[in-house]
Automatic annotation (TrEMBL):
Required cofactor names: pyridoxal 5'-phosphate
Species name: Roseospira goensis
Top EC class for this record: transferase
Family membership noted in the UniProt record: Belongs to the class-III pyridoxal-phosphate-dependent aminotransferase family.
EC numbers for this chain: 2.6.1.-
Name listed for the protein in its UniProt record: Putrescine aminotransferase
SUPFAM superfamilies per UniProt: PLP-dependent transferases
Lineage: Bacteria, Pseudomonadati, Pseudomonadota, Alphaproteobacteria, Rhodospirillales
Phosphoprotein in keyword set: no
Length: 452
């Protein structure tokens, strides 16, 4: 094996990291993660790190699950790979589809498998347009997303997402993607009651539909809780009103459950937590707890009936759509979440405990808001509470706070100036105490170092 210095040198020489500031990486070098167990990672120096982000919001069942290794080995021995093209199927893909239909809200009765959340959302774009073409309304092409929504990194998923800087790279934006503001009360409605703000924020969708022309709008997409875009928890009434507006105009409602799915918000899906009845839902991450890449599009009867009855063939698919080994691991992962009651635990016990502990940070001078649901929480930093002013340039202070946490061996992410936590669902109370105490100390450090 190599020394840390050797790993770093090789990494710097050859890897183009995703979502990484190359200059900062070159200056500091990467931290080499070599193994993991439970909620902990170990780096190449043997230092233990508490993973408060479950990787990238995905290792819901925690690391070191022997059952998942065994499930993969069994499936690879029997049938490592086959596909779902041209009228073939495999038992793990059939069983997983059945299980997902059972767990997701009623009416989502069909599944299209992909390898990543990005591909799932990209698939949705083609599927939705194909649906409207088959319904003889091909002019319904526009998909409305939200500012700071994140739906992935393919060209089309980036266009559908609302990440400003991201959308300016790589020849984007594409036509026929529009965006409304996300329901961020701290920014857009601090003086409104949550209920009034919820109604107002949903009203932005109605305004956009009127501006675009209702006959041109194909779908609206949103994450039940916006994750990478700042941990935006919807205000009361928001989703009910969005649902009503979509129904009123016959617009398809798509829930991106890539982060919120598989227990993250205390129910199996964020759609259940917020009472959303989507026509289409995308899943990834927690579907396999990140052990293998797999994602899925859950398709409701309205769309699947048209695709099947009128369509003939949806000319779309990936070599690894429904990869049997990934499906076998996902099935076993779901069975772990069920067996250990992890979803109920998030809702009834450990989620409320995390929020209660974070509430204790509310009086810190840097803390503008504490928000979250289940094991998905954000602490937004603010420059001046009385003046309600934010940091500029945005993200610098959050990044510093994140780096303090990481040097103290706790992974907490900064999305701009919001400190974000989404630990594995197996995290204990003691481990939450450690995570929140580390954040508290990092906030103190960050506060001390602020330029006056
Ligand atoms: N949708 C949401 C809400 C996400 O958070 C992500 C990834 O973070 C994606 C889609 C993209 O998924 P993937 O990275 O698997 O392509």
């Amino acid at each position: 094996t190599r020394s840390t210095a050797e790993w770093r040198a090789l990494d710097a020489a050859h890897a183009l990291h995703p979502f990484t500031d190359y200059k900062a990486l070159a200056a500091e070098g990467s931290r080499i993660i070599t193994r993991a167990d439970g909620v902990y990672l170990w780096d190449s120096e043997g230092t233990r790190i508490l993973d408060g982000m479950a990787g990238l919001w995905c290792v819901n069942a925690g690391y070191g699950r022997r059952e998942l290794v065994d499930a993969a080995a069994r499936q690879m021995t029997a049938l490592p790979y086959y596909n779902l093209f041209f009228k073939t199927a495999t038992p793990p893909a059939i069983e997983l589809a059945r299980k997902l239909v059972e767990l997701t809200p009623a009416g989502l009765n069909h599944v299209f498998f992909t390898n990543s959340g990005s591909e799932a959302n990209d698939t949705v774009i083609r599927m939705v347009r194909q649906y409207w073409a088959l319904e003889d309304q091909p002019e319904r092409r526009v998909i409305i997303g939200r500012h700071n929504g994140y739906h992935g990194s393919t060209v089309a998923a980036t266009a559908m997402g609302g990440m400003g800087a991201m959308r300016r790279q790589g020849g984007l934006p594409l036509p026929d993607f529009e965006h409304i503001r996300e329901p961020n009360r701290l920014r857009y409605g601090p003086d409104q009651s949550p209920e009034d703000f919820g109604r107002a924020a949903a009203g932005w969708l109605e305004e956009a539909i009127q501006a675009i022309g209702p006959g041109r709008v194909a779908a609206f997409i949103g994450e039940p809780i916006q994750g990478a875009g700042g941990l935006i928890v919807p205000p009361p009434g928001y989703w009910a009103e969005i649902q009503r507006i979509c129904a009123n105009h016959g617009i398809l409602l798509i829930a991106d459950e890539v982060i919120c799915g598989f227990g993250r918000t205390g129910r199996w899906f964020g759609s259940q937590t917020f009472d959303i009845r989507p026509d289409i839902m995308t899943l990834a991450k927690g579907l396999s707890s990140g052990y293998l890449p797999i994602a899925a599009v859950m398709v409701g009867d309205r769309v699947s009936r048209t695709l099947i009855d009128k369509g003939g063939e949806f000319i779309h698919g990936f070599t690894y759509s429904g990869h049997p080994t990934a499906c076998a691991v996902a099935l076993e992962n779901i069975s772990i979440l069920e067996r250990e009651g992890l979803v109920d635990r998030v809702r009834e016990d450990i989620g409320p405990f995390l929020m209660e502990r974070l509430e204790g940070l509310r009086d810190h001078p840097l803390v503008g808001e504490v928000r979250g649901k289940g094991l998905m929480a954000g602490v937004e930093l603010i420059r001046d509470k009385d003046q309600h002013s934010f940091f500029a340039p945005v993200g610098r202070v959050g990044t510093r706070c994140r780096d303090h946490c990481f040097s103290n061996n706790v992974v907490i992410r900064a999305v701009e100036d919001t400190m974000v936590m989404a630990p594995p669902l197996i995290i204990t109370r003691d481990q939450i105490e450690t995570m929140v105490d580390t954040l508290a100390r990092a906030l103190d450090r960050t506060q001390r170092d602020l330029p006056r």
